[in-house]
Structure formats: structure tokens, C-alpha cells
Amino acid sequence: MKDKLLVIPGHLGKDPGAVAGPSDQIVGDFGPPTSEKECWINLQQAIGFCIAWRASDLCTRVKVTLVVPNGEVKAGLIDVIDMKDPDKFSLSERYSLANRLDADILEIHNNSSAVESAHGSEVCIYRAKRYGCPSENAIIAEAMLSELEKLGLRNRGVKERPELDLLWKTKNLALISEVGFLSHKKQIKDLDVDLDGFNESAGCALWLGYAKAYKKIKGLKNTI
Model-level pTM? Predict the structure, then answer.
């Protein structure tokens, strides 16, 4: 586990993202903020993650860098990588950036399903076991899900997705969080981009889980 973490809100630029609704529609333009576009929900949660990191006792030990789309975020206290052309920020550029920075990577997403009853959180990783023991990725993912549960989000578990390029081509740790389902009628009311603080709380929960796992893996005293 590295002391550097690259945080990427998923579906930036014209990279398709889910839209609220059971039909699992796709939005093809980052565009202006709307309440239902996954890209904006992901960004709101990523900012919440970084705010929680900045306020924590690990902010001087763990270097967090946030990737933002075309100047949408101005942050004086967070290291920001501004994509001048977000439409060209490809999958390969994401893991290549993490590898150049020698950093772990967290990509924040939200889910959608044709099954309207699907809801809850999951975290995708490359492998859950290493030499018969839980992998560091699994320890982090479980801790994140545990914190998200405190917000009333169902724990759908850690998902092994070794076929995903981001997870196996990043040389350090890589995780993809799926916080909730935009296709669930009740859950979208929480995930909707507004000022109720839910998405920021979800981002904070992801950080708290990450921080607890970091201290466990590094053998530090947990003060959280």
C-alpha cells in the first residue's frame, strides 16, 4: 500500500455514464450539472472523499491527488490534476498516470441496473486473496463497505473483477467503488446531486474506510 493515492471520479468528459432510471440509459456528454447524471454524482463524492482526507490525521502522511474535468473544481488545499481535454482521458491514461505517480488508485462510480430492485454498494478489486490471506485491496474494500453501511447502504460485497484493465494494469493497488444504484427509485433520492450532503457523506465514508485500512495495514494506532 502506497502513501500516494490518485482519486478519479468516473465518467468524465464524454466517457458514458449511467442516468437515473431502470432502463440503464447512457449519457454521452459531461455537460452542465444535472441531478441525474452519474458523472456529477461521482465528482461530488470524490470531493467529499478529499475534504475528509484533508481534515484527517493522515493528511500529512498520505498524499491524495484528485483528477478533475476541465477546471470544474478549484481547490487550494487539495492537489488537483486538471484534464485540459477530459474527452481524451482514456482508460489507459488513467492507469498510466497512477503508474507514473507510483500511486494507488481509487475510481469512484455509481451503478445502474435493468433490475429496479438492485441497490447497495460494492467495491471491485483484482483479487481478494494473496498467499491465502486477504489482499490489501480486499482489506481496504471491506473497510469502505463497512463505513458505507453506516449510511444505510446495503453491503453487496467485494467483487473480484480481474478482467478490468484498471485493476490489473495499475502496478500498485487499484479499487473501483460503486456507491449506489441510480436505477433504484429510493436510492436515487439520496444520490441526486443537491445540497443535502449525502454524496459528501458517502465520499467521507470511503475515506474513513480507506484510512482505517491504511492504519491496519501499516500497523498504526487507529484513532478514528
Answer: 0.87
Q: Do 191 and 153 contact (CB within 8 A), yes or no?
A: no
- Rounded to the nearest 5 degrees, what angle is found at the Cα of 115, between the Cα atoms of 109 and 118? 55
Q: How far is CA 49 from CA 56, 107, 183, 205, in A?
A: 11, 11, 23, 8
DSSP 8-state secondary structure symbol assigned to residue 37: B
pLDDT-flagged residues of the chain (< 70): 13-16, 18-36, 69-89, 224
Write out the E strands in the chain: 4-9, 17-18, 26-27, 63-69, 79-83, 104-111, 121-125, 129-130, 133-134, 155-160, 174-181
Give every CB contact of residue 189 below 8 A, 6+ residues apart in sequence: none
> In 3D, which of 82, 99, 77, 64 has the Cα closest to residue 207?
64
**Cell 467483487, residue located:** 159
CA distance 158 to 95: 21
Q: According to the model, what pLDDT value does residue 210 have?
A: 98
Q: Which domains does the chain possess?
A: 4-218 (3.40.630.40)
